[in-house]
Amino acid sequence: MKKILGLLLFGALLAFASANVFAASYNTSTNWFDSKNVSHLNTIGQNIIKANKMPTTVTFKVTDNENMNTDIAATTQYVYIYSGDLKYVENDNELAAVVAHEIGHLVNGHNAKSSILNNAISSINPSTTTEKGAATVSLLKTISSNKVSKENDKEADITAVDLLSTAKYNPLALISVVYKADAAVSGGLLDSNLSCEERIMNIYDYANYNYPATVKANYKTDSYQKALNLIYANLKIRNADSKKLAKAKKEQEKLKKDKLKRVRNMAKSTNPWSSAYSLIQVSGN
Question: How confident is the model over 79-115, as pLDDT tens digits?
Fold first, then answer.
């Protein structure tokens, strides 16, 4: 009997170790193009998709092109995850955070919005064939792109927090990844006009306002704890100034209202990512 129990215990420990091998092996040298890692990436991605009732026909692929999803029309066939972001992943929560941020861009239809804006700017001055005309259009595109990029990343971040929370992943993992990636500023998650500090505070404030229990429970990685020092320093300054405190609260209230407006518009969208996201937000599931 003892021998049988021993074998059962050994089997259970072996199964546990096998189930956690990916989480234990994540580091900057992990080969994310390896078939086993791609398969695990798809498992995490499918967990997020199914929990949020999104299209299940999608396959997640790893790419060295950080703009792959913006270079193609949004579909429910493939979602490309930038390899540069994956090297900052330590565990499944952080892998889920990278995936959720990318889905956040798709949900909000950022690719289509950017294309429409650029086309509209190009049509302002018909004489873009001249050097001066082309330079003017190029400048306008840069200015508008910077502003749109900033807003897009804020939307993708807070959408990712919602997606992660629904799928039972820790949304604070997104802060952990952003903090680590800031050291390199090599594109991907950090390819934004938002500073690392602003990104972190936006994510933290949104998570704390909408999912306070999760924030209170903490997220115990070294990078998140370091980010938390920065967050607490900002909160200390904010809490000492009644105007800044009131402004922060007002911003979160506005975010909630803006989110409801976006969800309403998404319900009418032909984008399958948007319509699925709006459905689960309205139903509260």
Answer: 999 999 999 999 999 999 999 999 998 888 876 544 4
Contact status, residue 199 vs residue 192, Cβ threshold 8 Å: yes
**Each residue's pLDDT tens digit, 9-31:** 444 444 433 333 344 457 888 89
Other beta carbons within 10 angstroms of residue 255's beta carbon come to: 18
Distance CA 108, CA 101 (A): 11
- Note whether 199 and 136 are within 8 A (CB): no
Alpha-carbon gap, residue 272 to 106, rounded angstroms: 9
Contact 127, 94 (CB under 8 A): no
How many other CB atoms sit within 10 Å of the CB of residue 250?
A: 10
Does the pLDDT of residue 146 top 60, yes or no? no
Query: Residue 94: what pLDDT?
Result: 97
Per-residue pLDDT for 74 more than 90?
no
Say if CB 102 and CB 74 are below 8 A apart: no
Closest CA to 79 of 53, 51, 119, 111: 111
Contact 53, 285 (CB under 8 A): yes
Nearest to 150, CA basis, from 190, 210, 120: 190
pLDDT at 68: 76
Q: Using CA atoms, how far apart are residues 265 and 282, in angstroms rounded to an integer?
A: 12
SS3 string of 154-198? HHHHHHHHHHHHHCCCCCCHHHHHHHHHCCCCCCHHHCCCCCHHH
pLDDT the model gives residue 209: 93
Residue 9 burial (CB < 10 Å; 0-12/13-18/19+)? exposed
- Report residue 186: phi and psi, to 5°: -105, 15
Residue from 216, 210, 212 nearest 260 by CA: 210
